[in-house]
Structures
1.
Amino acid sequence: MIDQINALLPQTQCGKCGYQGCRPYAEAMAAGAADINRCPPGGEEGIWALANFFGVEPKPLDPGCGEHKPRAVAMIVEADCIGCAKCLAACPVDAILGAAKQMHTVIASECTGCELCIAPCPVDCIVMQETPAESPALAGALKPLRADLAKSRYELRGLRKARDEAEKAARAREKKAALLAKMQAAVR
């Protein structure tokens, strides 16, 4: 059931619903802990899809979660970017490229428009740019493809972060073991 609910969400991973991504929100809805009207990126269409799934009446978007906006992607004003890399850590789908002390850029086709990169930027060089309007047929066809791509990128980022943490922990254990061996050798 959770997978079915999650499939109805836009996969922006924005957290505007009050949960740390689309799947946790889907889990909360499945458990009856969250209402169907907390996803601004999904808008009215998303609320209707969730209402239909749950067999309940649709309701207006919860204004405490934000408002539905046209599709937009983050853009970095490259001349102002100082390369702090804070946006890299904030992006839930790894749609930002760059390195410390280097200019960053957004891969527009990968950006979900979550806006999570804006707040950590110390120089306010990230702006949201509305994407060109698409025909309803094209938008309808692209919506599930964009959601699947964003979900895959989000999951891959999670796997990468878990791998990085495991490698960091292994290095710390090795360092601790080497220090302990050095201390034991010094005592002998």
2.
Amino acid sequence: MKFKIGDTVAVLDDVIKGKVIAIKNNAISIESSDGFSFDFLPNELVVIKENQSELSKYSDISNENLLEKINEFSTKKNAPKFKSVTKTDQIPPMEVDLHIHQLTESTRGMDNYDMLNLQIETAKHKIEYAIRNRIPKIVFIHGVGAGVLKTELDFLFKNYHVDVYAASFKKYGLGATEVYIYQNPKK
């Protein structure tokens, strides 16, 4: 990839973005939005051509989850107006918001690894609480982001006897996962 002075770039493995201020041999110097200078190799950077808020307007167009939800919705319009209601449909799901600002007062002194661990530990405690208390479903609100938390949650859910689905698009958008817990009958 060719870089030019003045290009807006982002670092692939870090949360740094800024403008290219110099290109020397195999190193590219950038000035971050905070005013700090950093040197990176070209394969560590990517040029940002569009503003993130502009991109988010169109990001769902080719998203498979969204297309599935749209198709599901359009087929439901033609479906009969009656539905069998089960007991678990009547119970509102337990909601767990895993956004970091909901879990701690301040993230000062925490790096991304610490924040992710707090989110995963919270999810683990909540799912175990639901199992103990025979709560049939939980909605974990994780947001869209880069998908790291969702991937870690999917890995966590493999340790439990549960079914995992995308939560209601109408209520949560693409940033939530619904978990149905298989309960052992009481003896």
